[in-house]
Write a structure and sequence with these properties.
This protein has about 325 residues and is mostly beta strands. The strands form three sheets. Strands 2, 3, 4, 5, 6, 7, 8, 9, 10, 11 and 12 form an eleven-stranded mixed beta sheet that branches. Strands 1, 13, 14, 15, 17 and 19 form a six-stranded antiparallel beta sheet that branches. Strands 18-16-20-21 form a four-stranded antiparallel beta sheet, with no helix packed on it. β7 and β8 form a beta hairpin. It starts with a strand and ends in a 7-residue tail after the last strand. The N terminus is likely disordered.
């Protein structure tokens, strides 16, 4: 379950001019075109109940004289914002530049070739998990490139993200400055109980809280110092069976807003020796991104528990 506990973040930063933010949709100049054209709309992110959302249309046209396979590369303007969708980004490569993911994508999910003069229009979705502000913001640094299988790069254009304020304004946007490091924490959320279904497996309830807006891809929980015979079976709800000491936490959409919490449990098999249920086990939370970035406060990324079932459990 989600639970909103955070407050609005604020940033007092120098503003960029609205002229930059509201430039017309970019179309590659003829000098850049060897076999195709690229038209990219403006990416305007609107405040929602859960961060900002927005979409941008991208149209690719084969201007060559022969059927050609065209594909595109996208560097997201806001780290972690691009929503990968196999129908508009059948991704076959991904790397990171300046903390931003760069995805190489097929224009369709079946690797279609374009005939001379044929166009494909895709709508790319973005979701920024930060608290909406009362002022507009902007973040640059993204771009879209189109490549031809016959002639390489044929078109390119920059891509910026413009955030509407909570009252709809786009005038005099300030730079959006995203947190650079994750700020996650984990805590016990009740007593250890027997997991329904037999085999003596144990259920350890936990809660993850995310305190900032740094980009993140997923959460990983690892059980350390497990007694002999014990392995981490699965997350509940979610992934499994695992049968190791670590498990991916099935957070919906894999990401949390600042101040959001997610409660779940890990299922651990009982130790061979029942006496070992009194030994302390470390459960550690890791927030993944590219590259792996240390947490702001690693001290609250580990909790300790015993595997003994509570008397009233």
């Amino acid at each position: 379950m989600f639970q909103k506990t955070g407050t609005l973040l604020t940033a007092v930063l120098l503003g960029l001019t609205a002229t930059v933010a509201t430039a017309a949709p970019a179309v590659a100049a003829p000098a850049d075109v060897a076999g195709g054209t690229l038209s990219v709309g403006k990416l305007i992110l609107k405040p929602t109940e859960r961060g900002y959302r927005g979409s941008v249309p991208v149209t690719v046209t084969n201007t060559g004289s022969e059927t050609d396979y065209l594909y595109y590369k996208l560097r997201e303007p806001v780290p972690g914002a691009f929503q990968f969708d196999g129908t508009v980004c059948d991704m076959f490569d991904m790397r990171v530049e300046d903390n931003r993911r760069v995805a190489t994508c097929s224009l369709t999910d079946n690797w279609a070739y374009l005939a001379p003069g044929e166009s494909i229009r895709n709508v790319l979705d973005f979701h920024v998990l930060t608290n909406p502000r009362t002022y507009p913001m902007i973040m640059a640094g993204g771009w879209v490139e189109v490549y031809s299988s016959n002639s390489g790069l044929v078109a390119s254009t920059p891509l910026s993200a413009l955030f509407r304020s909570t009252n709809g304004s786009l005038i005099r946007p300030r730079p959006y400055v995203q947190d650079a490091q994750p700020d996650a924490s984990i805590r016990l959320n009740g007593p250890v109980t027997e997991f329904p279904g037999g085999e003596g497996n144990l259920r350890v309830p936990l809660t993850i809280r995310y305190g900032g807006d740094a980009p993140h891809g997923s959460f990983w929980v690892q059980a350390r110092s497990l007694p002999a015979g014990s392995v981490l079976r699965s997350a509940d709800p979610g992934t499994g069976p695992v049968g190791s000491d670590g498990v991916l936490v099935p957070v919906p959409e894999l990401q949390l807003m600042p101040g959001e919490e997610f409660s779940f449990a890990v299922v651990i098999s009982p130790p061979t020796d029942p006496a070992d249920t009194t030994k302390l086990v470390d459960i550690e939370l890791t927030t993944s991104w590219y590259p792996e970035t240390p947490d702001v406060d690693p001290s609250d990324n580990v909790v300790q528990t015993r595997l003994a079932v509570a008397a009233n459990g």
